[in-house]
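Assemble and predict.
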Amino acid sequence: MDTSVFRLEGVTKRYGDLVALNDASLEVGANEYLSFLGPSGSGKTTLLRVIAGFEAPETGRIFFDGRDITNVQAHERGIGFVFQNFALFPHLTVMQNVAFGLTNGKTRVPTPEAEGRAAEMIELVGLSGMEGRGVDQISGGQRQRVALARTLAMKPRLVLLDEPLGALDANLRSRMRNELRAIRERLGVTFLHVTGSETEALAMGDRVVVLDRGTIIQTGTPGEIYDRPASPDVAHFLNRFNLFEGTLSNGSFSASFGTIRAPAATRADRDCYAVRYDRVKVLPLSAKPADGPALKATYIASEYLGSSIMSFFDAGQGHLIEMEHHLSLGAPETYEPRQDYLLTWNPEQAIVFGREAAI
Amino acid sequence: MSSTVTIQDRQSKVTRWLLVPGIVWMSLFLVVPIAMIVYVSFWTQTTFNISSDPTLASWKQFFSSDTYTGSLWTTIRIWLIVLATTFIVGYPTALFVGLFVKSKTLSTVLLVVCVIPFWTSFLIRVLAWRPMLGKEGAINIVLLKLGIIQQPIEVLLFTELSVIIGMTQIYCVFMVGPIAFMLSRIDRNIIEAARDLGAGFGRIFWKIIFPLSLPGVVVGAIFVSVMVLGEFATSGALSGRKVNLLGNIIVTQVGSLKWAMASVVGVVLTIVMGVVIAGLLRIVDLKREL
């Protein structure tokens, strides 16, 4: 049985010489929360705009609800779009904004009915009592909710959100994160959420799609992405790994920390060794680890993050090594600034990428 | 007690000093002259002399003479027509320059093109319409050559129509500028959002674009109104003296040293302009919108 709501097949989009999207294929199930992660310029917003119908792809097809919508106009696709800067109508009230699509859209809903449906949506996003306010009289978080309610009022089966939390401050962002999920679960619609923040992508998506330079480089659950990044680039975006350049040959990886056995390497277009921040251990310089990596590094500073402490070490040539210590594992050790330490880790827990890897 | 001088006190002192030049200027060159005109309108005018004995004679004369009241209505009629024609010609132009042209450079170039006629003098721009509209003018020649008409159209020049054509051309740019400015400030995402919600172009225009450009329309209308209501040169040059606006009356009265009557017309004109501007400002709250 085909449960997919939405499917992309080999979609390519160019702006002149720039390839914004390269042969992107993707399948999205019903009632799913999908987040698109990538650095700016990776093509994630382009992908969203192509899906919405604001841009036409050069090649490839887009299917939605079992029909080919590649050449269907944006407003006839039944796909909702929440803009990055909300794009509210500045001269209208909250109620008029939310009801706009109902009263002015393709199928004109009579005003009383439209206002009823709009009021439901306003209640859903928690803005009851603000119907009559102008959108310049409400806060950024409330504007975000109005934008969402305006899109949801059209009862789309797929909602596209373009960095919806980008314009909010950190506190509000984490609150809206929970609310977005809750609203989505209540309505049972599929959300596609574009973000440049790895925390947001991993926290919100049922599945995460990682994009780089117009190409989808990995798709998977947050756990899969986090534990088994498909390439050095993915590991880099996740902002959770210390990366070492080096060479993989005959099942051993050689880099600044010496040469270590690396039997289970992942195939990639360059040789790279990744160690998660919380896998790094710090030993005094005098200690001699039996075998495994040993990297001399100078301690710089620490950052207290509440549940953990991040410590920063300089491994020479400006290579910054980060070490995360979860406070639940015990009190942190204190290190002397500008003193050398020995960094090590269990090689089993490292992720190795290489050109000669079998898989 | 110098220590009790607070920052607020000092700031309000600075504010007062900053206001002085403006107040002095406006009093000397606006308030005093207007008061003077109102005062002179009640002076006694004899054929060769004027005295400051108060009288309502000039006012009575203005409102009892068909020439004067007729000219008041002509002024209002021409103002309304020109306001409409500058809007009808100007709004689509502004829509194109401010909204449809995506490149900022190109829209600036187009606005400059609109302003190019201002590089020549006002009178030349007005008089240039004569060889265009005349009986043997460019338009008639072209239409005759094309065989569209057999007889030259005489109504084109030295009529109310020629005054309206001339004024529309001269003042249109004052309508285009403010509207194009407001339109260019509209966030394109808003229009895309409206389209995504299923609204067609007509709906988007009437519900989103037009309301958001309304402050520009009002500012443009104020510019055009103020200039058209005070006009005398275009009507003088293009109507063959058939169209007499209040401005023309003032020119004639001042020319024949009838200061009292000129003042009456001046006061009437000022009141009309005041009412028009106050009315236009009621349409939108400009302080909030700009």
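Chain B touches chain A through 16 residues (CB under 8 Å).
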